[in-house]
Structures are given as structure tokens and as C-alpha cells.
Write a structure and sequence with these properties.
This protein has about 260 residues and is an all-alpha fold. Helix content is about 80%, strand content about 0%. The protein contains nine helices and no strands. It is found in: Membrane. Keywords: Membrane, Signal, Transmembrane, Transmembrane helix.
Length: about 260
């Protein structure tokens, strides 16, 4: 118990990760479009995770701020992507995202309850799937391997929040099948993609150094996830740990975007 309290204090500052530094301006190129479209996937999971934490009265003020910021950023970036997109295919995909987003946003901003939480998780899955189609379509517009890496690194941001989402759902004991499987799958996918990123030939020294740091931290975090299974749930620690993962992958995604084509 003392170890958990100490770890909570050590990780506390990570929980306050803010997106106020993210540039909200017109998208100027494909690299930026892929990065922002990829960030939408993360926000879909982050919104649900924040809702689940509020429902369990876990850092309610910070969780509420996180949810509000995430909703605002998703809305802002959706508008930017709609303004940037010129192709009928992607415009159609964004219309689908917009339609699903309206219902998702309504659910997410209501007072949290267990019954609505299950509904919100399903709605979040739909927004995630539709947002992912947009990323894939944008990536296909270019044969540059750099854009694949922007997509892959950006997806890690989503997985960090997906891990926290499903752990939080488990801790709330929601009546939904396959929560444990979804949690384990997100952990596995994060691990596999992290090593794929490290092996990419286009990596700069800065990217490799950042990835090495993440891999080292991930080894510790993953062992912690495994130790917690079957024991008392500690969603605050998982939430703060995954905030660190998110922050690191946001930086790395930006490094890939900054690479010269």
C-alpha cells in the first residue's frame, strides 16, 4: 500500500497533461493532416476514459477538465480536417464522423452513470473506427513511408488511452463482455507497434533516443499492469501511467512529422 501511495505522488503531475499547447490553426500539409486525424482517434478514447474516472469519483476535477478539453479539441480538429479535405471520399468519411460525433458528444457530457457508460464505450468505438478510416485514407494519398510512421506513432497515443479506458471500465465493474480481453489486446498492440517503430529505417537519432526511453518506461509499466491483474484495482495509477505514455508518443509523432521527406 505504501508503494502505491508513493507511486501515486510520483505520477500525479502527469495526470494534468493539457492540450492547450496544441496548435489550432488551418492544416497546411498532408503530414499535419495525418497527425491531427490520428489524434482524433486518441481523443475518442480519452473522452470515454475521463467519463469513467468521473463516474468513479477519481480525481473528478482533473478528469472533468480533461474531458472538456478533449471534447473541445476534437471539435476544433474536426473542423480543421473538414476545411482541409478536398477529396469526395474523405469528405464523405468526415461527414460520417461528424454525424456520430454529435451523439457521442451528447452522451459524454451528461452526468456519468454505469448504464450510460456502457453505451458511451460503444459510441466511442464507432467514432474511433470512423476516425481511423480518415487517417488511412489520408495516408494512402502519399507513398511516403514517413506518413506510415506518423500514423503508427499517432496510433500509440490512442492505445495509451484505450488501455486506461478498459482498465477504468474493469475497475467500475461495468456489465459489458470482453473488457479484460480488450484491455489485454490494447496492451499487446501497444507493445508490438512500439518495437515496429524502433526498427523503422527512417528514424532519426532523436526519434530512436525518444523511443528507447519509451521502451524502457514501457517495460516497467507493462509489468505493473500484469501485477495489478487479479488484485484491487488502482485506476488512478493506470491513468497517470498512461498519461506519461501519451505525452511521450505525442512528442515522437511530432518528430516523425518534422522529418524531411
Amino acid at each position: 500500500m505504501r508503494h502505491i501511495r508513493n507511486l501515486s505522488l510520483l505520477l500525479f503531475s502527469l495526470f494534468a497533461l493539457s492540450w492547450s499547447h496544441i496548435a489550432t490553426a488551418d492544416i497546411t500539409d498532408l503530414d499535419e493532416a495525418i497527425n491531427k486525424a490520428g489524434r482524433q482517434r486518441m481523443l475518442s478514447q480519452r473522452i470515454v476514459k475521463s467519463y469513467l474516472l468521473i463516474g468513479q469519483d477519481i480525481q473528478p476535477d482533473k478528469s472533468s477538465s480533461q474531458l472538456t478539453e478533449s471534447v473541445a479539441l476534437f471539435e476544433q480538429q474536426l473542423g480543421e480536417l473538414e476545411s482541409y479535405t478536398k477529396t469526395p471520399q474523405i469528405s464523405g468519411q468526415l461527414k460520417s464522423v461528424r454525424k456520430e460525433w454529435k451523439e457521442f458528444r451528447k452522451l459524454a457530457t451528461e452526468k456519468p452513470s454505469k448504464d450510460k457508460a456502457v453505451e458511451l464505450i460503444s459510441a466511442g468505438e464507432r467514432v474511433l473506427a470512423l476516425s481511423n478510416k480518415v487517417v488511412q485514407s489520408l495516408e494512402q494519398q502519399s507513398g511516403n513511408p514517413k506518413n506510415k510512421m506518423i500514423n503508427l506513432a499517432g496510433r500509440q497515443r490512442m492505445l495509451s488511452q484505450r488501455i486506461a479506458l478498459y482498465y477504468s471500465a474493469l475497475s467500475w465493474n461495468l456489465d459489458q463482455a470482453d473488457l479484460q480481453r480488450s484491455f489485454a489486446q490494447a496492451v499487446q498492440e501497444y507493445d508490438e507497434a512500439l518495437h515496429e517503430l524502433r526498427q523503422a529505417k527512417i528514424n532519426s537519432q532523436d526519434i530512436n533516443a525518444a523511443l528507447d526511453k519509451v521502451i524502457s518506461q514501457w517495460s516497467f509499466s507493462r509489468s505493473g499492469f500484469q501485477l495489478m491483474q487479479g488484485q484491487s484495482f488502482v485506476p488512478f495509477i493506470i491513468a497517470t501511467t498512461t498519461e506519461g505514455m501519451l505525452k511521450n508518443m505525442e512528442t515522437i509523432t511530432g518528430l516523425y512529422e518534422s522529418l524531411q521527406s
